Amino acid sequence: MKKKNLYFLLNISIIMLIIIFIIIANKKFDSYVIRILNLCAIYIILGVSLNLINGFTGQFSLGHAGFMAIGAYVSALLYMSPELKEENFFITPLIWPLSVIQIPFVFSLIIAGLVSAGVGFLVGVPCLRLKGDYLAIVTFGFSEIIRVIFNNLQNVTNGPIGLKGLPIYTNLWWSFGIAILTVLVVKNLINSSYGRALKSIRENETAAEAMGVNLFFHKSLAFAIGAFFAGLGGALLGSFIMTVDPNTFSFLLTFQLIVIVIVGGLGSITGTIISAIIITVLMEILRSVEAPMNIFGLHVPGIPGMRMLVFAILLMTVVLFFKKGLMGKKEWSWDGLLKKYFPDNER
Amino acid sequence: MTFNVFLQNLSNGISLGFLFALIAIGYSMVYGILNLINFAHGDIFMMATFFAYYAITFFSLPWGLAYFAAIFLTILLGVSVDRFAYRPLRNSPRISCLCSAIGMSFLLENFAIVVFGGRPKAFFRPEIFTKMHTIFGVRIHSVSIITPVIAILALLVLTYIIHHTKVGLAMRAISRDFDTANLMGININKTISFTFAIGSGLAAIGAILWALRYPQIYPYMGIFPGWRAFAAAIMGGIGSIRGATLGGFLVGVLSIMIVVFLPALAGYKDAFIFIGVIIVLLFKPKGLFGEE
Amino acid sequence: MSVLKTDNITMQFGGLTAVSNFIIEVKEGELVGLIGPNGAGKTTIFNMLTGTYKPNKGKIYFYDKEINGKGIDRITSLGIARTFQNIRLFSDLSVLDNVKVGAHVHIKSSVWKTIARWPSYLYEEENIHERAISLLKVVHLENLKNDLAGSLPYGEQRRLEIARALATSPKLLLLDEPAAGMNPQESKDLMEFIIEIQNRFKLTIILIEHDMKVVMGICKRIIVLDYGITIAEGNPIQIQNNPEVIKAYLGVEATYA
């Protein structure tokens, strides 16, 4: 059969497998494992969306936490019931009409994503002329400004206390579903003429422009789509941990995503997926190191900070010795797999 | 508000400004010579305070000796960071260096948490640094008097080094034109190490003065002054020592004045700093005071 | 109607005037050479024509349409393409992808349709692929289509740059020192190649070159620049015997040689 149809069938099979996996997981796995699966999926969403901006378009943005925060707050403020809002906003009441609105989770997600995308676009505009370090600083600055604003707007975000007791809407269907959507959208974008245009910007901006690639449009595109999924990821994360507060979405979170993306390979979706899974699992394992344990009756005190120390060492090791990360710019593709195991004629 | 209170706040601001200047110079010099934003600089500042702290409490050194030991160790640390985290990436794409710097920053912070513990420690203050003096009816903390004095001394020494020594000449040459300086036989690596040494040394001096003023030290304490000093360096014109100093003042005085005059906006302090940085980077990337 | 017409364009950088009152008119199908000593302002003129620089004075007309000050990508979409003096390929992209990027400027499918893999997009993508392959065949690089552009030897990189520029479907092609670094045989091949693509793609070409064999060999008309000013214009014979030109290139003594 034609290659294209084969690939399509293979992709559908993978999705079916994932669906079956989720059904089994929901029935059989214990809640701790499900928690990790959810986190893996969320970090895949966040990592792939960051890689679109940083890895494929070459715009080194440190502002992802800001987009996540926007997504988390917007969605929470939309799906929280008025009663829950009143409970939370005990110092200063929430402004109208937010205080009375309540919409289903799915719509709150869509709106959250769109608002984040809008902000992503606004952040991208001034960054058009900036390169390297300066771009990183400005995007970081935006992220911090967003955090400070959220920390202070008592009557909208409830200030430093944040929103607590959120209903848990995030489950394997949502997290895996959106993860698949993110990967599909980014993959389809990257493997297209627009994707080549984005990559050309990364490779050589001057030449890209000379070849007719409009820098404003394409950089904004990357920022907007990247921010959209970051917003979704943030919303999912908020509902997952039942809390949305300014400190969850700090530079620390962006840093973790940077590590994921660099370890996986700036410019490889496959790499980001693998790396997100490995690092999420690693984070959980290390979490136990931070808490006190009992080994053979001996009380071993926890080592707080160990997790992030390992992370930092991991990042340094990859940056210094494995510059391309796990996959570099390579991807796993049906094409590649087939070539390896069934070498036949070229197209 | 009375004039007295105003003067008090102003002197606070100026003293704070000097502290930011001392740290900002480190950012500026490293950027001028390497085109790298040393994210770890604020954490090197933090380590200096811990060096001093342990020198006094663990090794029971007299405070004068402890401070010198701390400065020396900090210089070693700064040079090592360059040697092991930045030098191997000299020829790599800029993003690698950026990631290395960020990674180094997190590494130092979490190293401190793991080894020193996350709870704030009380920095020992020798008595002479805790007195309040009254000058022209204004009550000023002794640290606020000593800070400008020491800072000015340090800046004078620095200016001398930059303009009247071979190393200083080498630093200026590399800042201007890396490749030509290299071709002219200037030892790039040694000069860069020297730059880090000076920057770290100044940061250490600033750190001790800072700890004398705000005697609570903890692993994340470098973040706040680090970003302020960085903003100062950017707004003053990154790469320029004069700019870093002037920028330091700007940020120091503004920090205090905003809190005093616009208390309602105090919570947005951090945001203003970043807005300032963003505006400068977008419209006057050479800084408000131009390049040296 | 002329393809390109400039009307006394001038480029100043601070106190330095790089190009002064440059006038040129190029008709369809011409192959014009732009020569002059280093620093004469030739690449600056290219930069003005492509929109990289906006002329301080004067206007540029492309098919009677004013284009000075328009964005670089816009000018490319109107039909002016260029190659660079120092090769600027997309090193980590494949040879094929490099060429395909050139085609992006004329894409009709929206981003939505692209992501959703709409049939109209798939059709366009197929066309882009076919065209890119055929362009690679023209420059004899189709066997290397999946190699990384950065891994190609110098001469092949130059050819790839030209293929990429051709992918933008230009009407006017600006070649900046395409023969740089080539040996005599390669230069000869290049000459034939330029004539071939001119005929095949109905191009108008302006060529900056230092290799006089190439310039005199294929350009019907040559403009000579020195210190930003046009000092001579004419056919190869006229230029070769022009004393001003000889002086500019070889110094005053040479005119008496």
Known CATH architecture of chain B: Orthogonal Bundle
Query: What structural class do the secondary elements of chain B suggest?
Result: mainly alpha
As laid out across the biggest beta sheet of chain B, the strand order is 1-4
Strand order of the largest sheet of chain A: 1-2
CATH topology of chain A: ABC transporter involved in vitamin B12 uptake, BtuC
Please describe the topology of this protein.
The complex is a heterotrimer of chains A (347), B (292) and C (257).
Chain A: H1 3-28, H2 31-56, H3 64-79, H4 82-88, H5 105-124, H6 132-152, H7 154-157, E1 163-164, H8 172-190, H9 193-203, H10 205-210, H11 215-241, E2 243-244, H12 251-264, H13 269-290, E3 293-295, E4 298-300, H14 306-321, H15 334-341
Helix pairs in contact in A: 1-8, 2-8, 2-11, 2-12, 2-13, 3-5, 3-6, 3-11, 5-11, 8-11, 9-11, 12-13, 12-14
Chain B: H1 3-34, H2 41-57, H3 63-86, H4 94-116, E1 121-122, E2 132-135, E3 138-141, H5 142-164, H6 166-176, H7 178-183, H8 188-213, E4 216-217, H9 223-237, H10 241-261, H11 269-283
Helix pairs in contact in B: 1-5, 1-8, 1-9, 1-10, 2-3, 2-4, 2-8, 2-9, 3-8, 5-6, 5-8, 6-8, 9-10, 9-11
Chain C: E1 4-13, E2 16-26, E3 31-35, H1 42-50, E4 57-62, E5 65-66, H2 72-78, E6 80-82, H3 95-103, H4 111-115, H5 119-138, H6 154-166, E7 172-176, H7 184-201, E8 204-208, H8 212-218, E9 221-226, E10 229-234, H9 236-240, H10 243-250
Parallel strand pairs in C: 3-8, 3-9, 6-7, 7-8
Antiparallel strand pairs in C: 1-2, 1-4, 4-5, 9-10
